[in-house]
Amino acid sequence: MKVKLRNGVELESFAPTRKGDPDHPMSDAELSEKYMDLVQTVFGEENTRLLLEEMWTFEQLTSMREFNDKHFHESRLRI
Question: Where are the domains of the chain?
Answer without folding.
Answer: 22-76
